[in-house]
């Protein structure tokens, strides 16, 4: 299963947007991320739907933050991105009548669920301004 890096990529973009203090075009974000502007627009529109960014049209337009970083958590952005799976570990379903497979899947599923809940609780505690502070501290 392919890793989903949209969360880390969008966090990266949002902190940059905070420091740039001006509208950032999809083209510029695409260059920053090494991707296509269409992918950027599609992903940023998910954040716009939740009220975390605005799209400004016309000359000098682009994407801007709609909320200050201290009002946005990792969980907010994770949920905005359609709550992709936190883990790429999968369960097998080739032998659905096998009691061993059922036991293995149940054990793995329980552990992944518990770990996922812990990750989401921690995501809720981390606001993006903390990421920006760490970035600024490393520049000094």
Description:
- This protein has 140 residues and is mainly alpha-helical.
- The chain has a domain at 6-85 and 127-139: Arc Repressor Mutant, subunit A (Orthogonal Bundle), CATH 1.10.10.10.
- It has six helices and two strands.
- It has a two-stranded antiparallel ribbon with strand order 1-2.
- It starts with 5 loop residues before the first helix and ends with a helix.
Write a short abstract of this structure:
The protein is mainly alpha-helical.
User: Which CATH class of the domain at 6-85 and 127-139 is shown?
Assistant: Mainly Alpha
Strand arrangement across the biggest beta sheet: 1-2
Give the ordered list of helices and strands: HHHEEHHH
Termini gap: 39 Å
CATH architecture of the domain at 6-85 and 127-139: Orthogonal Bundle
The tally of strands reads 2
Oligomer: single chain
Please tell me how large the radius of gyration is. 19 Å
In the CATH hierarchy, the third-tier topology of the domain at 6-85 and 127-139 is known as Arc Repressor Mutant, subunit A
Short key terms for the protein model shown above:
6 helices; 140 residues; two-stranded antiparallel sheet; Arc Repressor Mutant, subunit A
SSE order and pairing:
Blueprint: H1 6-20, H2 26-33, H3 37-49, E1 53-56, E2 62-65, H4 74-80, H5 99-125, H6 128-139
Antiparallel strand pairs: 1-2
Helix pairs in contact: 1-6, 2-3, 4-5
């Amino acid at each position: 299963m392919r890793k989903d890096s949209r969360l880390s990529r969008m966090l990266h973009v949002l902190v940059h947007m905070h420091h740039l203090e001006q509208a950032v075009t999809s083209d510029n974000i695409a260059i920053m991320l090494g991707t296509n502007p269409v992918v950027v627009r599609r992903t940023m529109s998910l954040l716009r739907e939740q009220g975390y960014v605005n799209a400004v049209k016309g000359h000098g337009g682009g994407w801007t933050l709609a909320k200050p970083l201290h009002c946005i958590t990792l969980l907010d952005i994770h949920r905005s991105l359609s709550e992709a799976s936190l883990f790429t570990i999968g369960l097998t379903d080739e032998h659905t009548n096998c009691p061993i497979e059922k036991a293995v899947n149940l054990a793995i599923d329980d552990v992944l669920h518990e770990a996922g809940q812990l990750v989401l609780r921690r995501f809720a505690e981390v606001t993006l301004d903390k990421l920006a502070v760490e970035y600024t501290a490393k520049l000094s």
